[in-house]
Task: structure prediction
Amino acid sequence: MPDLPFSPADLLRLDREHVWHPYGPMPGRTEPLLVESASGVRLRLARPAFGRTELIDGMSSWWSAIHGYNHPVLNEAAREQLGRMSHVMFGGLTHEPGVRLAAKLVEITPEPLRHVFLCDSGSVSVEVAVKMCLQHWRSVGRPAKQRLLTWRGGYHGDTWQPMSVCDPEGGMHELWQGLLPRQLFVPEPPVAYEETYAQLLRDTIARHADELAAVIVEPVVQGAGGMRFHAPEYLRVLREACDAHDVLLVFDEIATGFGRTGTLFAAGQASVSPDVMCLGKALTGGYLTMAATLCTAGVAEGISRGEVPVLAHGPTFMANPLAAAVACASIDVLLSQDWQAEVKRLEAGLREGLAPAGELPGVREVRVLGGIGVVQLDHEVSMAAATEAAVREGVWVRPFRDLVYVMPPYVTGDEDLERVARGVCAAARAG
Result:
């Protein structure tokens, strides 16, 4: 007999008994909201929460659903690919969606990025990037170059090497100090350009050049490490210093790629290109998990000259055809419209809508860049109280630490954007 449908109460009971949610204890201490369906920018709940059965998603499902939900073009791309094949291994085989996606990424990313390794999550793309850099130097006869340099306040994922370049004290991975590889850190970058900080970057790279494999940073916006913004000019400083001292430069654009900051990639704000770039999140428009690590011909050629001339990494679902087909469709949807105008519209709406939060007690700062709005408190946010306040306004947000922030889908209309801002203000007031 087929399974009978579960009631919302059954699902939440089973969730509580068996499901371990991200960044939460087991069993969970708060009941999650049960989403029944999603369309456009709205999440529909299976049962009401604080009087609401529908919420505007201010998070783009952790910054990935830039086109909203249930998009007809992306749906059709998935259906068409399902009719051909949903998956086939990439070892020894290839396929049109994977090849088309790689070519498309090379076309839209900065020169001289030429080679694409398709993987299955943002964190894995950073693992691959680090492995590329370490193997490159080992292969060209400089095995001592095996450390990474970054600035404080960063976040690059939850797997092993990415955790080692997340903020070592204020981040989520303090638990693993002493076990993770010991990397080099400089203070977090200032908002505005300061020559003294730029010189610190130059001096640190020069001093440690013999042991540095790469510098890795999130360009312009530091994401889950604190939602901080910094001057694009620092990227040029890094590029020049890395070139001068034979160090590779890695940009983690998992959160910033595909237009979120107002340029297609945040690197474009400084007109520089890294040796390695990590992409993810919005790559498939939030439909399926997929990420990519791009590198220059120089990085790839270095690895190919080594005793082990292959990049020894191969996820089972690497270049998944279904995800690749949807990713191609998502990129086409983005580039076929005036996405820059849409992001500027979001920026203007968030600046206006979040301005009142600056007058609230307990608010330290309000900042907006592109399709990103952040309200920083002077205390740890009460997750439960802030979430409830936003939901009562009909908005879904996911505060953390001292931050209430939003990254709404680009298709969010002006009225919905106003409500998103009201939800953030309510969350900041309650939290």
User: Anything to note?
Assistant: The first helix runs from residue 8 to 18. The CA atoms of residues 349 and 412 lie 10 Å apart.
